[in-house]
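Weekly modeling sync, notes
Attendees: AB, CL, MP (scribe)

Item 1: holo prediction request
CL wants a bound-state model with flavin-adenine dinucleotide before deciding which constructs to order. AB pointed out that an apo prediction alone won't tell us much about the pocket. Agreed to run with the ligand included and paste results into these notes for async review.

Input as submitted:
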Amino acid sequence: MTPGSHLLVVGGGVAGASVAYFAARAGARVTVIDAGRHAASHVPSALVNPVRGQSGQVDPRAREGLRLTWALVDALAEAGVGVPHGRTGVVRPVPDDRTQQKFARNLPPGLPHRWLPAGDRPAALAPGWTHALLLPEGGWLDGAAFTAGLLAVSGAGVVRERARTWDAHTVTLENGERLGGDAVVWCGGAVGAGWAGEAGVQRAGTLLTLDRSPSLQPLSFGAYLAPAAAGGVLGATFEAPTSGWPGQGEQTPTLPLPSLGWLLGKGEALTDLSGVRVTGRWSGRRLSGLVAGRQPDGSWRLSGLGSKGFLLGPLLARHVAGDVLAARGM
Ligand SMILES: Cc1cc2nc3c(=O)[nH]c(=O)nc-3n(C[C@H](O)[C@H](O)[C@H](O)COP(=O)(O)OP(=O)(O)OC[C@H]3O[C@@H](n4cnc5c(N)ncnc54)[C@H](O)[C@@H]3O)c2cc1C
């Protein structure tokens, strides 16, 4: 691609917005086609957390990914776009010695961390946790603001339509209009995979919005408690995986009652929730099965970010944007 080449990006979540941002910075003209529906990236408060799950797994790209995400938050601020966030560190309480040993085994040498003695733990953390790991480079951010900020600062043109089909150089919209470009990158997330009739693994999830956050530092084991732009969140459930998006791709995921009970139980284990008011809920779907690169039809794709969209999405998008531009001679 030569400077001024035209890149079409389908999907304007964190994946598509990040691809647009990096491609535009490298000199490409970018058009994002985004239906603006069911974006998982609009999660009100996402953790930027390098140590995952209940065994403390760390993706080899985690540190580079989180540093890039924070660098983008800074770049957006410099461009006049404020993204609500907290670079406060993330606290991962651990219930027993066995789990602590698993976490310790998985921690790579270069990842800053500290096991907190009882006296140094956040006051809001419930008693009874055997260990607590502080990841000082982690934090939280407002997913919708971050995504919208990247898109705005990229300067990309945005077409608010659904793409029906696409190939290496064209995107056909639902209304039949055809857009042409030098390359196409598909970043449609879970809903887009559902619309395309793909059978990829998806997991619905819901978080509760709260009138305040009991802790300034996110707390995470099983569920997470974190501040948000307005109040806080307690998230998120993991519903049973499904193959594809149910129905015609328009239903908002439900919150089954047992999941609500599970979530509140996990929240109570992290902190005393008495006096905290639930103000609403937000639901989305995560798509598993990372794909980042060129497809057999010549188009490009970044999808399947699972629960790590804000940890790895911008980093992988930078790689994909770079590869697209390099493949086209830029
Ligand atoms: C409950 C929950 C909690 C989460 N918590 C965290 C967290 O704490 N930390 C973290 O890092 N990640 C978290 N995630 C995961 C994160 O939200 C996702 O990994 C990320 O948002 C995926 O981004 P994406 O750009 O691939 O897809 P999406 O954000 O879903 O964006 C896809 C966009 O493409 C559009 N689109 C799709 N198909 C088409 C089409 N054919 N034509 C036009 N437009 C189309 C959609 O309308 C949508 O706007 C969470 C997810 C959920 C559901």
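Recorded for review: The chain has one domain: 6-326.
Action items: CL to compare against the apo run; MP to circulate these notes.
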